[in-house]
Please model this.
Amino acid sequence: MNRMLLLTLCLCGTLQAEQDPDLVRLTARQAKLDKALDKVSPALVAVEDGNGAGSGVVVSADGVVLTASHVVSSRRSSRLRVIFPNGDTYRAELLGMNRSVDAAMLKITDRPRNGKPFPHVDLGESSKLKRGDWCFALGHPGGFQKNRPAPVRLGRVLSAGYRTVVSDCAIVLGDSGGPLFDLSGDLIGIHSMITEVIVENRHVAVDAFRRDGDRMENRERW
Model:
C-alpha cells in the first residue's frame, strides 16, 4: 500500500477515534481508575486468624484496619495477622465490632518495618452515593497470593442506604472485609455479603464506620 495513503488512513482513524464520545469517556474512566488504583492498592490487606482468611483495608497511618465482623468473629482473634501486597506480615488485634451491620475494626500492633507510616486510604461518604455511580472492588478472592495482584472488579452502585451499599461489583469467597472505592479512590464500603447473584453484592456503608468508629476504637462489641 502507498505509504502516503496508509498514513492518511491512520490519521483518519485516529481523528475518528478521538471524536468518538464513547471512546473518550471510556479512556477518561480508565485513566481515573488507574490513578485510583495506584493510590489505594498499597493499603489493601489480607486478614488471617489461623483458621480462615478474608480481606481488609488500612485507614490510618498508625495501622487501623477496617474489615467485616464475620471475618474476625472466631475464637482465634488473638492470632490475627494482616498481610500487605508485598508480603509483609504484621500482628493485629481486634478493637471493636458491630455485628448488626457486619463491621469490625482492627489495629496493627507491630511497627512498620520501613519506619514509615502504614499506607492508608481516605474515607468517602456513602450518603452521597447515587445509583449508577462507578465504583471498584479490591480483595483477595480465594486467599492471599503474593505473586497475584489483587483482582480489580469495576461496577456501579445499585443502591446506598444508612447501613448498606449494594453494587454489581463481582466478589467471591475471600473478598469479605475488602474495600469498595469510588473512582476517586475514596473508601465507600466494606464487602459484607455475597448474594446468589454474583453481580449484586452488599457492602457495609462506610458511614457506619464513621458513626460507630469511636465505640469500636474503645473496644466495644455489640
Residues 141 and 173 are 6 Å apart (CA to CA). The chain has a mean pLDDT of 90. DSSP finds three helices and twelve strands in the chain.
